[in-house]
Amino acid sequence: DTADAYMSRRHARINIRRLSDSSIRVEISNAENKNPTYVNGHILEQEDTIVLHDNDVIKMGQTDVRVKMKK
């Protein structure tokens, strides 16, 4: 839940996958909404899928979320 009126209910899609070498891959893509999503200040286009890294910043509406990868 959020009070951010500029964030959609389904704003972005985050997928987490364990790779064959046991590492984790985290990806973000747009969830087909009209409100933009930004990763590190760059707009995420409808067809984009971006791999996320530690300390990346996702902006949805007026909310910033910092990615923290556990080591």
Q: Could you explain the architecture of this structure?
A:
It is globular, with a radius of gyration of 13 Å. The chain is built from no helices and seven strands. The model has no long low-confidence stretch (mean pLDDT 90). 0% of the residues lie in helices and 44% in strands. By secondary structure, the chain is an all-beta fold.
List keywords for this structure.
71 residues, mainly beta, 0% helix
End-to-end C-alpha gap: 28 Å
Task: Say how many strands there are.
Answer: 7
Cα Rg: 13 Å
The number of helical runs is 0
Oligomer: single chain
What integer is the average pLDDT?
A: 90
Strand order of the largest sheet: 4-3-6-7
Spans of at least 5 consecutive residues with low confidence: none
Topology:
Blueprint: E1 12-18, E2 24-30, E3 37-39, E4 42-43, E5 49-52, E6 57-60, E7 63-66
Short description:
By secondary structure, this protein is mainly beta. The protein is built from no helices and seven strands.
